[in-house]
Batch of 2 targets.
Target 1
Amino acid sequence: GAVVSQHPSRVICKSGTSVKIECRSLDFQATTMFWYRQFPKQSLMLMATSNEGSKATYEQGVEKDKFLINHASLTLSTLTVTSAHPEDSSFYICSASQGGDTDTQYFGPGTRLTVL
Amino acid sequence: AQSVTQLGSHVSVSEGALVLLRCNYSSSVPPYLFWYVQYPNQGLQLLLKYTTGATLVKGINGFEAEFKKSETSFHLTKPSAHMSDAAEYFCAVREGFSGGYNKLIFGAGTRLAVHP
């Protein structure tokens, strides 16, 4: 149980284009989903938190107009990187939580974004 | 504010030897603590977690961790290392339960190498 998928696993795009990454909880309902960014050989940096049906909460320094997050259902959240630039190249990881005080975050396998 | 310090960015052990990965935390509230493992180009997998109750927590793949409040530590151990244990390990503390969701603060990670 508690499986989270991400699609695509790897994407290469040209500078200036937009890329959408999907995060799905396959066997549970995720009231909250988290989006992280991980640079090579570094830890995870939380970008934003989204609750189903409401606007995402972005961490300080994260551009909400550049990283659009939508959490339209209890099993799906999307991250859209708009007008991507080479510096946006990174490993993006989502996690999902059922909510509650002691609940655990379950992580997706990650998406490797390369912007040329 | 909560924080996590992982001592040693790289740890190398021989196959069959004891694995000890160190984690110290800072928290103004009773902490919820987690250990995650990340294999190359993959997301994070939960190894174990401490919320309340028994301070010695057993996880998957033979790992365990002990919560020591007096030392503010949550070190991860495994009696006998296996080649398949080679990976990146992250310790995390829950920042707090606000707005109905948990926010994790991650340590910098420890890369475990296992030699034959």
Target 2
Amino acid sequence: DAGITQSPRHKVTETGTPVTLRCHQTENHRYMYWYRQDPGHGLRLIHYSYGVKDTDKGEVSDGYSVSRSKTEDFLLTLESATSSQTSVYFCATQPAGGGETQYFGPGTRLLVL
Amino acid sequence: GDSVTQMEGPVTLSEEAFLTINCTYTATGYPSLFWYVQYPGEGLQLLLKATKADDKGSNKGFEATYRKETTSFHLEKGSVQVSDSAVYFCVLSGGYQKVTFGIGTKLQVIP
């Protein structure tokens, strides 16, 4: 299994507060992804990265930004948290030429009050 | 665009029962198909995959066959155990950023 950690694992915050979630991998995988998981929606892609400083938007990117300054870290920032961003956030990685399998972190449960 | 359809459940079965979770898809090109499993409080992990038509993926007693003619990738297991209780996701991949998830099917196995 890929070594993928997410921090924090749980967070409660207030509306309007900026929040940063961190994903750290030890597998040197090229691609990294941020998803959110909500009932009735499965997983939806927020942003992804195809290399250091190379990122792009997914289907639900509004209100989120990302940064990847080194291979092992991928940060997700909620610029001004809203209640609609209450969700479980998963980071995933994928090696280049790795047959499209993604490896997931344990998730961060975020509650915006 | 690409899409994956699976029932949300929950599917409740007795231990040792036969399991089928249906998955159908629409896609352009020649996608790869996956089943991922999510145990309570954990992230998703790969259960099995198939990369071309008529391929059969298998793992831990689970099987699924990539059927291009019916655009399906149904998950089956002959005899479920309580430890199989989890959420199962059918996933389609058309490339490194072209991944589409089904909504997930919750399976509950009772002793």
